[in-house]
Amino acid sequence: MTGVAYRLERAGHVVGGARILDDVTLDVAYGKVLALVGPNGAGKSTLLGVLTGDITPTTGAVTLDERPLNSWDPVELSRARSVLLQANHVTFPFTARQVIEMGRAPWIGTDRSAEDERAIESALDRSDVVRLADRAFPTLSGGERARVSLARVLAQDTPVVLWDEPTAALDLRHQEDVLMTARLLASNGRAVVIVLHDLSLAAAYADEIAMIDRGHLVAVGEPAAVLTAERVEQVYATAVRIIPDPDTGRPLVVPRRA
Fold first, then answer.
1. Which domain range does residue 81 map to?
2. With a threshold of 0.90, does the pTM exceed it?
């Protein structure tokens, strides 16, 4: 797919008198990875919640495929976008495979249900959880749960993919695997939005970075344009050095340490 997936126009969100998002205008394009970055409490997850449709902005407008987001019914929305949240809780002792199969629920009764087995096997392989398929989800480690939850989202197979801190519980190898998967999805025309804390990871894999601070969209654009030392130091209140990655030339954000 091509063009704009989401369009936010002056979107804001207020909770208990506190303005969590303020006047955010942003386009999310098909075929690109957009990383949402910013310090703790900046509003990144709230902005992602606005995109998922789980949070209704108190001001402004949000459209998906040129339709107001609040006009989509839940089934339509589940076929248009998939969501990976930070928390990966399953109360009952479902196996990892059964959790991943849940990702196919939106396609029950449609022609797409014929793709269930292929989508599930591909998701198991892509997330490196084949060996975990028959394990009970509650017995898995935090990182293993995160990878199984990612596989569930991949099995859902939607044009828009929204991930909230997908690398937080993962080791170095699997962090790289997840973000390479994001790049693969974008190369196949998907719109991919990822909340990340690691600025160097965001710079390495994102086409665009949107930096949020205290509910405001501070900057959006290519990684090298957004991740300047001056801007990062101002937003994060930490001295940094920006150096080019010797392999890719993309920015590496390194704290200045005594």
1. 4-255
2. yes
